[in-house]
Every structure is written in structure tokens, then in C-alpha cells.
Write a structure and sequence with these properties.
Strand 2, helix 4 and strand 3 form a beta-alpha-beta unit. By secondary structure, the chain is an alpha/beta fold. Helix 8 crosses helix 10. The N and C termini lie far apart (48 Å). A 5-stranded parallel β-sheet has the order 1-2-3-4-5, with helices on one face. It is built from 11 helices and 5 strands, in the order αβααβαβαααβαβααα.
Length: 203
């Protein structure tokens, strides 16, 4: 593992995110579909390096069954990366076949809201990142109220990033402004207060 630590040192990393992407790999031509021993290797890495280690799905969600495998794993955080954002099962089918050959698989995954609930219930003390379909400040507010400690956004920033740095900053400013309005509407003075508010689920 010295090479891994050297690489993290070289780029000035704050943490290591380990991706778990079985569905994406299954869609790839000659993808790696052997995930046996992954949890043990994750434990070894988390115990052996001085950097915090986060486990991250890539857009198909982490649910209760997977979270249960992490109960005694010394990871610093989990990014649930639920379905609702970019589907890498869709992307990889386009790359491999030039078409969506398996439409159901392109939509397969645990929605971010459900993933948050399941992982929070299973790992109550592990910090959670909500990603996968977070497009607005209100999406962020909902995710935080449901138990996320932070949110991550990718696809909505792609077009602004191609345009300019100023466009990215403008998008982020509007995103944060909407989140602040949501806090005001909930009577929450800060994000911690919003998290304490929780959410009411309508059956």
C-alpha cells in the first residue's frame, strides 16, 4: 500500500474515495465482475493508511444489505450515490453497444432518498453523503433533512463548467440561495437545525 499513500501524498489529497460499481462493470466490455473479498480489502485499506476512507457508489445506490456489510468496517463516510442522477449502466451500454440494449438495467438502482434512509438506519454514526439526482437547493435541503451530512452535485455543473468559471460560481450561488430559503421556510437557523427537523413521509 505504500504506492497508494505516495499517490495520495503527491496530489495533496484529504481523503480516499473507494468506488463500488458492480452494475457499471457488468455493462462494460470485459468489465471486472469479481467483487469477492472487496469488504476485507476495504477494511485493510481503511486500517492501513492515515487518510480517511470513504466508500462511494457511482449512481445505483447503497442499501441496507450492503450497509450491513460495513458495520465493523472503519470507514470515515459513505456516499450513497443513489439512482436519480447519471446512470452508468446507461452510459456503458451506449459505449459498448451504441444503444440501450437493456433498458431495465439502465434504470436499476436504489433511489437516493431510500438509500439514505436504509444506510442511516444501518450505520447511524457514519457520516453520509447524498448524491445521485441532487439538482437544486431544495433537493439538498430534503437530503439533509433525511439524514445526509452533506450533498454532492455533478451533472448540473457540467454545462456551466464547459461555459466558464463564472457560470459555475453563478450556478452554485443560486443553489446555495435556494437552500437558504428552504432553511428559512423550515424555521431552521442552520444545517444542523434542518437535520433535526427531519421529514414527514406521506404514504
Amino acid at each position: 500500500m505504500p504506492e497508494l499513500v505516495d499517490a495520495l501524498d503527491h496530489v495533496g489529497a484529504n481523503a480516499l474515495a473507494v468506488h463500488t460499481n458492480p452494475l457499471q462493470e457488468a455493462m462494460q466490455h470485459k468489465g471486472d465482475t469479481d467483487f469477492s473479498g472487496s469488504i476485507e480489502r476495504l477494511r485493510d485499506v481503511a486500517r492501513s493508511i492515515s487518510y480517511p476512507v470513504m466508500l462511494k457508489e457511482v449512481g445505483h445506490g447503497i442499501g441496507a444489505a450492503a450497509a450491513a456489510e460495513l458495520v465493523d468496517c472503519p470507514i470515515a463516510a459513505v456516499d450513497v450515490a443513489g439512482a436519480g442522477g447519471t446512470s452508468w449502466a446507461r452510459v456503458e451500454q451506449f459505449v459498448r453497444y451504441g444503444e440501450i440494449r437493456y433498458p431495465a438495467l439502465a434504470e436499476w438502482g436504489i433511489p437516493t432518498a431510500q438509500a439514505l434512509q436504509e444506510v442511516r438506519h444501518t450505520l447511524p454514526d457514519v457520516p453520509l453523503v447524498a448524491s445521485g439526482g441532487i439538482r437544486t437547493g431544495m433537493d439538498a435541503a430534503k437530503a439533509l433533512a433525511m439524514g445526509a451530512d452533506m450533498v454532492a452535485v455533478a451533472r448540473p455543473l457540467l454545462a456551466p463548467a464547459i461555459e466558464s468559471t463564472a457560470a459555475v460560481l453563478d450556478w452554485l450561488a443560486r443553489f446555495i440561495a435556494e437552500l437558504q430559503i428552504c432553511l428559512h421556510g423550515c424555521g431552521a437557523s442552520n444545517l444542523t437545525a434542518l437535520q433535526r427537523r427531519g421529514v414527514t413521509l406521506i404514504p
